[in-house]
Structure formats: structure tokens, C-alpha cells
Amino acid sequence: MTERWLWTQKQDVGPSPRGQHEMPYDAARKRVVLFGGANVLGRLNDTWEWDGRAWAEVADTGPSGRTSFGMVYDDARQRIVLFGGSDERTLFGDTWEWDGEDWTQVADIGPAPRGSFAMAYDKVRRHVVLFGGSGPGVNFNDTWAWDGTDWTQIADTGPPARRLSSMVFDSSRECLVLFGGEEGGTEADPTRTPVNDTWEWGDDDTGWVKVQDIGPRNFISPKMVYTGKHTVLYGSPEPAGRGQTWEWDGRVWTQRQNMGPIASVHPALAYDSQRDRVVLFGGLNRDEGVPTYLGDTWELAIVEPPPA
Description:
Blueprint: E1 4-11, E2 25-26, E3 31-35, E4 38-39, E5 42-43, E6 47-50, E7 55-59, E8 70-74, E9 79-86, E10 91-98, E11 103-107, E12 118-122, E13 127-131, E14 134-135, E15 138-139, E16 143-146, E17 151-155, E18 166-170, E19 175-183, E20 193-201, E21 208-212, E22 223-226, E23 231-235, E24 244-248, E25 253-257, E26 268-272, E27 277-285, E28 292-303
Antiparallel strand pairs: 1-28, 2-3, 3-6, 4-5, 6-7, 8-9, 9-10, 10-11, 12-13, 13-16, 14-15, 16-17, 18-19, 19-20, 20-21, 22-23, 23-24, 24-25, 26-27, 27-28
């Protein structure tokens, strides 16, 4: 028997429905932490925590309301790091940290202000890594690292310039994994083109290496987490129906599930290592062409087969 990948809806109460929010797992405090995003009321700046049973709002001050930002957990420093994003008028280039009680702005210089980039924490090199994203009329392909004090650009080559990629750190293979995104959508290249290539960064001397050019297709804003054993991706290639769940094993992509959360773009995904569950919240569903913000919470359990 093989593993079973099982999605279960947990809650439909908690944070207001939204999309383009972020939601890392705070391993020290054993909480999934959600911030920001947008819905019909505009940009949001509330902070919530999920303990596996219920949502609780823990702050309504901190970074200004925004979407398309990056937010990851710095395991060594036990802080959640937030960078960039945008509101209705402004692209941000500020860096904030959440210590479990308060938000503190810790930098206002670093990468150019941008949104829709990929961000992950590298446990080997002990820094936050940022790739790509978009600014006024341009997509980026630069790579930056945050060490808790300063941002440093570490590459300007690798994947072609893009926005809406997803990135995780595979601890077992000690490499960053970056998938997909969208090229174009700028004044110079107005055509928006989803891409489905996979890149890895495992060696500082080599930098980014393209390892696969086939996989899930036409995902507008894929989301990935690493569970300690599985690189899990959730995405939606179509505006209706159900989302898809895929796994990257270091060589190929395999679809594991096409049932569970309703198809959505711009949801948030986290891995609760204490409870061994992948948690998904929100997103934007476009069923029948009518955009609807979602406010449901789902969990994915990967169930091992019983011993022979």
C-alpha cells in the first residue's frame, strides 16, 4: 500500500475571507501565524494564530495593510520575517519581524520595493532567501539573503525574471526548491505566461540550477511547504472545481490528490510540524467567473501505510 494524502476541512470561522496573505508556522510557539492579505474591504493588517483547534486574533497593529508580501519563519532566531508587498498605491521595501507578541520594523533598505516574490528560510546557511517578484513595469530575477541584520544580494542570474513563484527549503537534501510562477505582465512584455520549471540552490558556488522543466501546468500562484519528508505543492490550474496537490521528490513531480479544498488562487499554506499537518487557509475562487474570497481552513494529513 502507498501513502494516503487526505484533506479535511477544519474550520469556516476565524480570519475574514481573503487572498494574497501569508501564513508561516512558528515552531517555537507551535502556532501557524497569518497576516494581512485583501478582500472586498481592502488591504488587511490583522495577525491571527491557528493552534490546530481554533483561530485567535493576536494583533491589529504592525505592518500596514498589504498583499503580495513574503513572510517566513527564521528558525535560528525564532522570529517571523516579513518583507515588502503593496497596498493600493505603494510598493514596500520594508522588513518587519514578529516575536510572538509584537511587530517591529527592523530595516527599510535592502531589495528594491516589490511584491509577488518567493521567500524561504535556508536552515543550513541560517538566512532568509528572497527571489524575483515584480516592481513598477518590471519583473526581477535577483536573489537576496537576510541574516537578521542586513540584506545582501547573493545572485543576479538563475531563473528568468518572474513573479508568483513558490520556494521552500528541502532539509533532507539541503537545498532550496523554486517552482513556477508567471513571466511577462510588464509594459515591455504584457503577455502573462505561466511557467512550470523547477530550480534548486544547493551549492553557493553553483547557485541556481534548473532541474526540471515539466510539472504542474498553468498554476497562477502555487504554494509549497516542506514537511521533513515531502515537498508538497497546492495549486489550481482552472478557475473552478478542486485544487490539486502535488509532490516533488527531487527528480519528478507527481500528482497526489485532486480532491479537497476548492480551487483557489492566492491562498496561504503552512506546515505544522508539531501536529504533522499541512494547513491551508483562504484564497480567491473564480467559479463561473465570479471572484469569491474564501475563509475556510483545511488540513492535509499524509498517512503512512501500516507495517506489512
